[in-house]
Design brief:
Helices cover 78% and strands 0% of the residues. The protein has helices at residues 2-18, 25-40, 47-65, 68-86, 95-106.
Length: 107
């Protein structure tokens, strides 16, 4: 009986967002979105638009999915990624993808 209760608790944790890892649907989707935004930022003419798009989409995802202390921890990385994207030559680096990867890796 206790084993079934533990299994039920584990299923509830993963369904409620406790298992938002890299291979989760959320992780795969956000890594793809971040990768597309990083590829778009290679073109200098649309670099600013990709920065705005990344800030809105990835920033919104961060605020909606990371409660409390996890949000404070990830906010520092988010500001670093935004700063990297604002520097003209350095913005070619895949900063959005690395930010999403590290955020998902920390859980």
């Amino acid at each position: 009986m206790a084993d079934k209760e533990k299994e039920g608790e584990e299923e509830t944790k993963t369904e409620s967002g406790g298992g938002g890892g890299i291979t989760s649907p959320e992780g795969v989707l956000m890594l793809c979105v971040a990768g597309i935004i990083d590829v778009i930022s290679i073109v200098p003419a649309v670099n600013i638009a990709s920065d705005i798009l990344g800030t809105i989409i990835i920033g919104g995802w961060l605020v909606m999915t990371r409660p409390g202390e996890a949000l404070k921890k990830a906010l520092k990385r988010f500001l670093i990624a935004c700063g990297i994207e604002l520097i003209p030559i350095v913005s070619i680096a895949p900063s959005w993808t690395m930010f999403v990867y590290k955020t998902l890796k920390d859980g």
